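Marked as duplicate of an earlier ticket. Keeping the data here for the record.
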Amino acid sequence: MQFPTVLVTLVSIIQALALELMWGKITEADYLWEWGIGTIVAWGTITVTLLGILQIWVLYSTLIIGFTWRPTLRDSILPFVLGIQEFMLVTFISEEFNALWLYVLASLFLFANYIAHISFRRARAEPDNEPFFRDRPPATWRDFRWSFTVITSFCLLGILHTALGNPDWVALTAIVFANFALAVQVVSSRSLWRAILETED
């Protein structure tokens, strides 16, 4: 089946476009080279956006390289939605922190978790993946507590930032938390990849 190869190629093209857009944003933003809280926040949004783009790539790479699963036509459309969300993240990077950036990030977390969940469900149904899923029970709502906490926190921080008149300390808190949340995702992906490699038939 050639679809998985086509899918990962499609995702890589979209990720490359998002990175190109972000690079253009960085080179055109003179305020990034001036010292201040706004500069720190702006660089923070850039690091989160970069980690988010890389995390989406790792997600698809893990699904396609680590498991046997049967993609559907819907799977060829979902990367475009993720791409739009990534482009919006880059677009909202500015000298003045925009709370909409947090809402887009929350939607990206939500959508990426949805893709991972439905993909793992299909992977579990494939006999070739039985060694990996043998001692792992199906996911329940409790397994998504961290993701829901992150998504809710992003939304609440966005509301708080707007309600208090866009204070710098809320923006800085949001950026620190967002970087932490993405770092946790990276560590989680690393653990998953190790578990896949250590799986024995």
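See parent ticket for discussion. The first helix runs from residue 3 to 28.
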